[in-house]
Predict the structure.
Amino acid sequence: MLKRLSDLIIVLIALIGMSALFYLLLIMPTQWLKIERVAHPIGLGKRFLQISDLHVDMLRIGPDKMEAVVRAEKPDYIVLTGDYTYRREYLPRLALYLKAITAVGVPVYAVLGNHDYQQPRPREMLTLFREQGIAILRNGSVSLPEFTLIGIDNYSTGHSRISEAFLNIERSKPAIVITHDPNVVLKMNQNYDYLMAGHFHGKQFNIPFFFKLKPKGPLSQRGIYRGLHRSEQGAYYISKGIGQAGVNARFMVRSEVTVHEL
């Protein structure tokens, strides 16, 4: 009897240990939000907060936390670089996040990602953005006092129109680009001063050969899937994103929002 009880205790301890390890390695990185900071001065003296890959259907960072981050960081502009949700039933939850992000009154601009084009009725999602005063740039630009903001639509779904996005921009101003899939930089024939993208989730699972198992295009095959890089046309940054896709877990990759000092 004592031996059975002892064996049961050992099994319970092992299960508790495994559960704790599972939480620490796979779940905590999705809750322990990292504020990544990038200094790449191009003369604007402006602070941009980039929020990428919300995936609100698999997001463990709450709207209140998002609003607190915006208030604490005091950005001049907020940019959302795609992938909000592909599931229509999660649009009300997306609305909560959009309200939290816009609550402080900072100008917000956005682009769409590949998951957003899986929405059965994309217009419903676009309506949510309009209701919160968020401009979605779909191969277009907006002229702001110090720079031009250019939004290139999602590359992996065939919606990118680079020439159209750069049409009639003021060349005398710095050009800031937002897009979802960074693979588009390999097709860029236009110079820019800075580009922000997401899509790769920083691997999400930091294991060898991950992008062999889950191909994400030529950049990831070259080992370029997060952080600051440079092409012939300009510097670009790939966010690790805040939400998850596929499996609601991360391994050795924390959820991220990014503050860019430009």
Summary: The first strand starts at residue 34 and ends at 39. Helices lie at 2-31, 63-73, 91-102, 122-131, 162-165, 210-213, 218-221. DSSP finds seven helices and twelve strands in the chain. The mean pLDDT is 92.
